[in-house]
Amino acid sequence: MRVSKLFTKTTKNAPSDEVSKNAQLLIRAGFVYKEMAGAYAYLPLGLRVVEKIKTIVREEMESIDSNELIMTTLQRKDIWEKTTRWDDDVVDVWFKTRLKDDTEVGLGWSHEEPIIEMLKGYIHSYRDLPVSMYQFQTKMRNELRAKSGIMRGREFVMKDMYSLHDSKEGLEEYYNRTIEAYKRVYERLGIGDDTYVTFASGGAFTKFSHEFQTICDAGEDIIYLHREKNIAINEEVIDEAIKELGIDKDELEIVKTAEVGNIFNFGTQKTDEMGLYYVDSNGDQKSLHIGSYGIGVTRVMGVIAEKMSDEKGLIWPESVAPYKVYLVSIGDIKDQADSLYETLIQNGVEVLYDDRDERPGAKFADAELMGIPYRVTVSSRLVADNTFEITNRSTNETNILTREELLDKLN
Questions:
Q1: Is the pTM of this model over 0.85?
Q2: How many whole angstroms from its chain centre is CA 127?
Q3: In this predicted structure, what is the pLDDT of residue 373?
């Protein structure tokens, strides 16, 4: 992609009402547009990051045999009434509206109930189990506070997955496989070292659930952490959890975190409430065990932007960067820069080519603000020696390489 063809532009200023670092940077770098508090449009650069994150998540969910689908955002009132979660006193983040025929519907904040209702048409026998399915879905939550940029939105992209099993043991085995898949996701996203499986409140359905919490100064959660034992506990359940785990509270470090994922073992309560059962090999009707597993796709993008940035701008990990290379041409060397651009593309390198008639300092500043992992510079002086300059955004290390050396480094 040529920068001259991007309709977005970088800017020195973010909206005056934007207080979050992640959104300020993403807006200034041309990745997102703020529609209103808690609602952002994802522009071409931002969408590429979202899709990179989704690809990583998709690959890991399919590695544990989950099937991708997509449910509707419009949700039926009667389905949620079966579990009492239509009641605003039980779930207080609903967006509700009415169709033209006066039918009251909700805009999906989660999908456990609709998934279970749908599966009544597909699960009948033990031969139909286990089942796992996931989706990437835009969720709608009427949050009271939306001041953390894309880390806490009223509208956001989430990966939610649901698995159904014929036994407690079957669900527990899959639940643990999912934990390992989630660990791989966060490792590949570049935040694995700072992300912890955290004991949290299970709500009305289970004593404890597990959250995936990433150490982040802009986060809204507090966890108690034992790094050596790899134990993390959400502040809300600390006293109960330390009794359960038999550890000393004084051993734990208090850190601020952002929740980037969560998983719940619901047992059979939710499927029993919804009336979804299966027939076992003896012909007897039995209850189903269900797990629910979420990753905030746009939220984790915001966490990465918060954690991986400096005074110059964003610093994307290669795995999710919109482009691997920001190609800069300086001086009257268009043919040589165009040639390198085409060569990089032919070699499978994702390139954002700054072909604008702009001063070098402005091009370098935009490359740093956007956080592209490598900046490659083509100039008259370098071309004379048949060399190119490459700068690593995260380390600021600069090297002069031949064309062959450059291709070897970027492939």
A1: yes
A2: 34
A3: 97
Return the amino acid letter for 351. V
- The phi and psi torsions of 144 (rounded to 5 degrees) equal -70, -40
Would you say residue 315 lies in a domain? no
**Residue 201 falls within a domain, yes or no?**
yes
**What's the structural domain count of the chain?**
2
Sheet holding 95-98, edge to edge: 74-76, 104-107, 95-98
The closest of 387, 403, 409, 203 to 324, measured between CA atoms, is 409
pLDDT (0 to 100) of residue 207: 66
Per-residue model confidence as pLDDT tens digits over 35-58: 998 999 999 999 999 999 999 999
**Of 254, 283, 310, the domain-final residue:** 310
The Cα-based distances of 114 to 76, 101, 109, 159 in angstroms read 8, 21, 11, 15
Domain residues for the domain of 378 are 323-410
How much is the pLDDT for 205?
A: 46
**Which residues of the chain have a pLDDT value below 70?**
203-207
For 179-214, what is the HEC assignment?
HHHHHHHHHHCCCHHHEEEEEEECCCCCCEEEEEEE
